[in-house]
Amino acid sequence: MPEVEGDLKEIQTLRDTVTVGIDDMAVYVPKLFISTTGEFATSRGIEPAKLMKGIGVEKMSIPDAHEDAATMAASAVLELMKRSDILPKDIGKIYLGTESAVDEAKAMGTYVIGMLEKVYGRGSFEECSTVEFKSACIGASYALESIAEWVGSGARSGSEPAPGAADGQGDDRIGIVIASDVARYELESSGEYTQGAGSVAMLVKKEPRMVALDGAIGSFTRDENDFFRPIGKRVAVVNGKHSNSCYLSAVGGAFASFKRRAQKVGLLNPNNLNISQGESILDRLSYILFHIPYPRMTEYAALSLFRQEWKNLPRWKDVTAEIGPEPSQEMFSSPEDYGKVDAAYNKKFSKSRAFNETFMSKVEPTTFLSRQVGNIYTGSMYLGLASLAEQGLLHAGDKVCFCSYGSGCSALVFSGTIQEGFKSLTPGNVQKKLDARKELSLKDYEDLHEGRKSGSILPPSGEFALMGIDSQGYRLYDYVS
Ligand code: CAA
């Protein structure tokens, strides 16, 4: 009996001390892009300034004819495995978030494993499980939540499974989360200039070198028709302005939920974030990573969240002294009238000193890569994390807040702490990859978009490629050296 008590104590201690999170990440982007300015803007009759500033996208990554979400996912994992010296036997689970499924039933991860086995040998991933998470752009965050819980349960119970232990316990292997998508809208639609493609693969393990997850997760879910892709459709159906407003209310709701959870798990305590009277949790966050469908959306999100968080704090007096009081909804007979006045107030707030300082230091740097890649749906918030790493902006002890959004709609908010070991990771080479891309003509872009190109623009080399689809619809992939 005393021994059992000892074991329980030990488990409790481990529970308190073991950290789980993102150890390393790899970003894959296709080798082709189209500039939003130039031929594209002219042909669509749009001022380049609108796309560069109003939307914030300068270039969009476009997949070649031999690429899809599965090839991009496999390429990102291969880079991650090689860089971190991981062997297939070290990986217990590969969870994949995507809304660009290539099959209605077969998990994309099985295709990814098939591709990886072309490099590591047939059967090398046999003991690794995989599942596809679908929840629009938030899918990879649910995958991360789940895999972090699995890694944590294995870490807490040691490497030797106890007799009769539940699944996952005693398993000290690592997990991989992949976010992989092709963001595609109708040609000439207002969604077209927010397209993109890419994949982010993240290594999830105990005592991670990059970001340890703090353990509080806020969530929000509501049935909405803001953005969806009915079965059989190649492009999304999108109610653009409505999608923006669903995003804002879902992230606001999840942030409020996150604060409640943070309180419960002691994240706001003096030995942690140490929030005192008159302060906001935002004050303790070094960076706020929003989902980035287009960089400008992060400004809308910050405007909404900062107003929500600041308006009951003493500092709001300084804001109102600068831009006047907030309009009150009761003063308007129709929601439309209130909406117009509130939007005008938001514009003023966007120009206020307090907003600008906070936005420019905590949010704007997260959009660095998205400006050159476009929307990669499930991976775009994690591309924001890569943006910070690329620019050398992450330092040990920094708190980063993840505000993940998926249409339909759902939001998750959680935080993490940058680890000491982060210094030992070489900064990503994403920018180098972006600089080496080939610019597409408008015609080639449109042909690729419409599936009219049978051959590749750049023949595959040193990458995974879709070689064909057989008469039953099974996809044939290979590694082309
Ligand atoms: N110079 C500078 N700015 C200009 C300009 C110019 N010449 N011309 C226009 N602008 C500004 C506009 O004033 C506007 O800014 P403000 O909000 O400050 O006024 C901004 O450019 C955007 O222009 P519009 O309001 O005219 O917007 P739009 O018709 O181009 O549509 C969109 C924008 C709704 C995002 C559309 O691109 C879209 O539907 N995209 C796909 C859906 C999407 O990304 N939704 C985001 C939320 S859902 C989500 O996040 C999930 C996901 O990944 C899809």
Describe the protein in words.
The chain is of the alpha/beta class. It has a single domain (2-480), classed as Peroxisomal Thiolase, Chain A, domain 1, CATH 3.40.47.10. It has helices spanning 2-17, 39-44, 48-55, 69-83, 108-120, 139-156, 240-264, 295-310, 316-323, 335-350, 353-362, 370-373, 380-390, 430-435, 442-449, and strands spanning 20-28, 32-35, 59-62, 91-97, 129-133, 174-183, 196-206, 211-221, 227-228, 237-238, 287-290, 399-406, 410-418, 438-439, 463-469, 475-480. The strands form four sheets. It has a nine-stranded mixed sheet with strand order 5-4-6-7-1-8-13-12-11, with helices on both faces. The chain has a three-stranded mixed sheet with strand order 3-2-14. The protein has a two-stranded antiparallel sheet with strand order 9-10. It is globular. Mean pLDDT is 92; it is low at 6-15 and 159-168. It binds acetoacetyl-coenzyme A. Acetoacetyl-coenzyme A (CAA) binds next to helix 3 and helix 7.
